[in-house]
Amino acid sequence: MSSHVHCRPVGQDSSGFREINAVTLAVGDMDRAVAFYTDLGFPLVVGGEGTPFTTLRAGRSFVNLQLVEGWRAPASADVWGRVIFWVDDVDAVHERALAHGLRPEFAPTDAPWGERYFHLRDPDGHELSFARRLDA
Fold it and tell me: Which CATH superfamily is domain 22-70+81-133 in?
């Protein structure tokens, strides 16, 4: 497990930035990627299996999947980074992942920075973190 700090909302600041609306991830096999994300519970918005671009909903935001011919997961787990999703029930998402045969990197854990979380890599090597603040 890595020790890291997840950002917490602290109210609106003067930067003018409000939120991230979407994250786009490269995938080598759209059918496999769509199955992975919909199995986890991300609702399909547009696209889907057999398409070059798919959008899934993540709360008020979106996860886009872009088919990139020849895409392969990075050789090193430390190359890419991670996307952090705040969820209502970390343990339920973990159980759903296990029920679909997915292999999270570790069981949900209470972290010293005040979140319960776990990590999971998608089939294209992108690290996903599912978290909930402990005081929420």
Answer: 2,3-Dihydroxybiphenyl 1,2-Dioxygenase, domain 1 (3.10.180.10)
Instruction: Categorize the per-residue pLDDT at 2 as very low, low, confident or very high, splitting at 50, 70 and 90.
Output: very low
Could you give phi then psi for residue 32, rounded to 5 degrees? -65, -45
User: % helix / strand / coil in the chain, to the nearest 5?
Assistant: 15, 30, 55
CB 108 within 8 A of CB 97: no
Q: What is the pLDDT of residues 73-118, one digit of tens each?
A: 777 666 677 899 999 999 999 999 999 999 999 999 999 999 999 9
The answer to whether the CB of 102 falls within 8 A of the CB of 11 is no
